[in-house]
Amino acid sequence: MTVADRPSSKQWQTLDKDLGRISQVEYATAYVSRPLVGPGIALIFMVLAGLAAGIFFGQFPSNFVVVAAAVVGAYMALNIGANDVANNMGPAVGANALSMGGAIAIAAIFESAGALLAGGDVVSTISKGIIDPSGMAETRVFIWAMMAALFSAALWVNLATKVGAPVSTTHSVVGGVMGAGIAAAGFAAVNWPTMGKIAASWVISPVLGGAIAAAFLALIKSRIIYQEDKIAAARKWVPILVGIMAAAFAAYLALKGLKRIIKIDIGTALLIGLVIGMLTYFITRPMIRRQSEGMENRNKSLKVLFGLPLVFSAALLSFAHGANDVANAVGPLAAIVHATDAGNFADKVAIPSWVMVIGAFGISFGLFLFGPKLIRMVGNQITKLNPMRAYCVALSAAITVIVASWLGLPVSSTHIAVGGVFGVGFFREWHMERRRRNANIARPAKLTIAPEERRRRKLVRRSHFMTIVAAWVVTVPAAALMSAVIFFFLNAVTG
């Protein structure tokens, strides 16, 4: 190359500018496409679920309805993972006991294990007796009612996740089944006493969960945090609290998570819990003593002692959640499969293995792709959590389910867990206000805090509180309305 052929400095500058523009286009493309990665993977999973249904269920056109139902069931499972699982992992992440990646990994493993190992092999196709299937005119009407219920519940949970509101997927399915049932067979088809119990659980679940969480936080504050020798107090009380946690979760899993293996009544479950709790106490006591050696007499040391039990509690909650709530995704799908195959509908049907796999993997994918938003909201944005407070939330969830089962009340794990977070936050507000009031007795008037400043220092975000409560209240009617509209559309198109 001659000197005349070499690019001039001006040409080099032009080339640099062109390359810079190309790199900017690449960055912009990556930035724009990043939000599409999650929905793209979710769409691929839904397509694969439909293909699996087509492979396992025979030839077209008889399997067309099942393929469509499998796609909608996969969509529902993705939304359960995105919304419901946050309630189990949010407190542990908010307390910094788990990283976001660690929480997602543990939840994915234990949710799938719970669904596949202990998920119920028989579910109520009419969602706990919400509607009477005998009121349906024909099998085709029943199939479209279940399809509408499943699709409306998935849409509602998806919308709630978008606005950052943890809602009950169980109540979403209940609302969907109720709305489709009314549209298909009239108001007489609905079991209104059962609906009344579910409506009562809207209040009972969060209040009971919050009260239990607040009670345990009060116990920890009085017996450990405010003691002169915190480490000595922790050596005495932490093994007791871990034993209570083990007893509660053993009873919880025996009662709710092992239905596929063996049916256990509440008395036997409590006995199992008592034995496991005692064993855990005697095993944990020397471990806590060794772990606490050399620790400073401060609250930061206490957080370390509660960290590992909190991780175990989050894992156990995920296992139990997978065992129970996977039916929300695949129950109506199993009903559609049975009705299409047998040509009739029944109160209870067996869940095929491939249907359970769709539910289990869908929950895991939904958690991985879309779960962090709700995990952060539950763990960080409602109120500030540390390992002690988050531990109280996890413990209250297990105990509340046991109490509700004993009373025969249908409860929502979402309402219990979020209610526990609110309970902890409101107790902290009340406790702080009481201490401030006592301190102000001996404080000059000019140093007292103005009411406006006290309102600003509230420990529970009122905006999140109102958003979540509003979402809870409208879940069943919103899902029911959408389900009725979808059923009318499906029935009109296919009728």
Q: Give the terminus-to-terminus CA distance.
A: 78 Å
Oligomer: single chain
Query: Quick one: overall form?
Result: globular
Count the beta strands. 2
Order of helices and strands: HHHHEHHHHHHEHHHHHH
Percent of residues in beta strands = under 5%
Low-confidence stretches: 28-33
Q: What structural category do the secondary elements indicate?
A: mainly alpha
Number of helices: 16
Strand order of the largest sheet: 1-2
What number of structural domains do the residues give? 1
Please state the average pLDDT score: 80
Q: Output the radius of gyration.
A: 26 Å
Largest sheet: 2 strands, antiparallel
Describe this structure in words.
- This protein has 16 helices and 2 strands.
- The chain is mostly helical.
- The chain has one domain (36-494).
- A two-stranded antiparallel sheet has the order 1-2.
- Helix 4 (100-118) crosses helix 10 (299-342) and helix 8 (230-257) runs parallel beside helix 10.
- The longest helix is centred in the first third of the chain and has 48 residues, at 9-56.
- The radius of gyration is 26 Å and the shape is globular.
- Mean pLDDT is 80; it is low at 28-33.
Features:
single chain; about 500 residues; mainly alpha; two-stranded antiparallel sheet
Layout of secondary structure:
Blueprint: H1 9-56, H2 64-83, H3 86-94, H4 100-118, E1 122-124, H5 139-163, H6 169-185, H7 192-225, H8 230-257, H9 266-292, H10 299-342, E2 348-350, H11 353-370, H12 372-381, H13 387-407, H14 413-441, H15 451-456, H16 462-494
Antiparallel strand pairs: 1-2
Helix pairs in contact: 1-2, 1-11, 2-5, 2-10, 2-11, 3-4, 3-10, 3-12, 3-13, 4-10, 4-11, 5-6, 5-10, 5-16, 6-16, 7-8, 7-13, 7-14, 8-9, 8-10, 8-13, 10-11, 10-13, 13-14
Transmembrane segments: 36-57, 64-82, 141-161, 173-192, 198-217, 237-255, 261-283, 304-323, 351-370, 390-407, 413-430, 465-490
GO molecular function, one term: phosphate transmembrane transporter activity
Protein name: Phosphate transporter
